[in-house]
Amino acid sequence: MAAPRKYPDELRERAIRMAVDLRRDPDTKQGALRRVGEQLGINPETLRNWVQQAEVDEGHRPGVSTAEAKRIAELEREVKELRRANEILRTASAFFAGGGARPQAEVGTAVPTAVLVEYIDEHRDRFGVEPICTVLSGAGTQIAPSTYYAAKKRAPSARSVSDAATLAKIVTIHAENYGVYGIRKVHAELCRQGHLVARCTTHRLMKSVGLHGVSRAKGPRTTIPGSGPDTRPDLVQRAFTATAPDQLWVADITYCRTFAGWVYAAFVIDVFSRRVVGWQLSKNLRTDLALDALEMGLWDRARAGRDTTGLIHHSDKGVQYLAIRYTQRLADAGAVASVGSTGDSYDNALAEAFNSLFKAELIRNRGPWRSIDDLEIAVAEYIDWFNHQRLHGELGLIPPAEYEDQHYRHNPVTATVVASVPSLH
Q1: Of 19, 24, 63, 87, which has the highest C-beta tally within 10 A?
Q2: Which of 132, 153, 174 is the last residue of a domain?
């Protein structure tokens, strides 16, 4: 049978006393430690360490006494516990931080048990359950280990089950829509899909995982005014409204940064439905850029059997829109040209708003971009999504194509601009 790893205190004291007594007598000093060790069954080197420590404790030998060593060990343990408590409070503050993924402002406020359990789950392997509960309770956030273990055994509540299912749908909707939807549109899309939840629930769940809408923000000049005289009137006067499709289109050009250089994008938008009817990308700002976007819009409407005669085409005074080729194409299509004033973005505000949205939702959100080839594919996918899936706030949170379809179902024969605004002709 193996010897016990720790000697009894009584045996230790007796061995030290016998060894010290023998070492004091010159006749028995030689080999005293070996003899006492053999008699009591103690390793001589272990006994030697005991005797030396006893001499230190009595002041006969320099060194750290047993009492001092014990005190040092206690201080080291206290420091270790304080560091652990400080780390628990630091991680808890970050976990419960307001403005982040969790709604609590700081440790010490009323924190739901579910959130506390989530925090303990995440850090129990590092700190342990009992130390975490002790530190948090000392900081004013009361939770006992028994509360944690009871919560772990408890079946999930109906609300947590419902929240999990709703959150999964929210994450899917947010990802499928370029990650640009905020609370309002995510909530609207949930309702469109038949998942009826309160808007405040949508807000709470999106905040819990850090989901939010995209923000807009602004770079090279794309509007270069024409040098010649322009007598075309401003028929819109900042009133960007229409009662039917193909009454009023707005057009503008914006820019996109790629690794290969600047790329310019031209768009033509139907004011009634906010639908992008035509677009084009180019590495330069020549007339063909704007003209190709216009041609695409006219072709798209002609393919659908829509008459664009009498359409008002509104733009800024960019040189592309003053070009003879562009003006002639408008005349051939029976469209009426309208322009805003020079250097005033409000006169073409609807097109400017789309440009801002386009850059926020696609260019900055999905960039950076290598070249015009990569960007062209992405723009095609974005415009298709924008026209057929994206919920538009100005249309009652439905996509532009759906809004047009609803109009044509209720108005089989749509009045042209000639009939509705005779004063323009």
Answers
A1: 19
A2: 153
Q: Give the tokens for residue 52.
A: 């030396």
Q: What is the predicted pLDDT for the residue at 3?
A: 52
Task: Answer whether 265's CB lies under 8 Å from 379's CB.
Answer: yes
Q: Are 29 and 145 in the same domain?
A: no
- Those residues whose C-beta lies under 8 Å from the C-beta of residue 119, and which sit 6 or more positions away, are 91, 92, 95, 96, 132
N- to C-terminal Cα distance for the chain? 115
- Parallel, antiparallel or unpaired: strands 261-270 and 248-258: antiparallel
For residues 357 and 382, give the distance between their C-alpha atoms in angstroms, rounded to a whole number: 11
Residue whose C-alpha is closest to residue 313's, from 285, 278, 264, 356: 278
Taking the mean position of all CA atoms in its chain, how far away is CA 96? 17
Report the phi/psi class of residue 57: left, alpha or beta, with left for phi > 0 and alpha for psi in -120 to 50. alpha
Report whether the peptide linkage leading into residue 4 is cis, meaning its omega lies within 30 degrees of zero. Answer: no
Q: H helices of 41-157, where? A: 44-57, 66-95, 113-127, 129-138, 145-153
**What integer best gives the mean pLDDT of the chain?**
82
Residue 220 domain-assigned? no
Measured distance CA(316)–CA(340) in Å, rounded: 5
The number of folded domains in the chain is 4
Q: In this predicted model, what pLDDT tens digit does every residue of 364-397 receive, in sequence order?
A: 888 889 999 999 999 999 999 999 999 998 899 9
**Residue 34 reports pLDDT greater than 60:** yes
Q: Domain of residue 14: give its range.
A: 9-63
332 and 380 together in one domain: yes
Query: What is the side-by-side strand order in the sheet with 276-282?
Result: 276-282, 261-270, 248-258, 312-315, 336-339
Q: Are residues 186 and 167 in the same domain?
A: yes
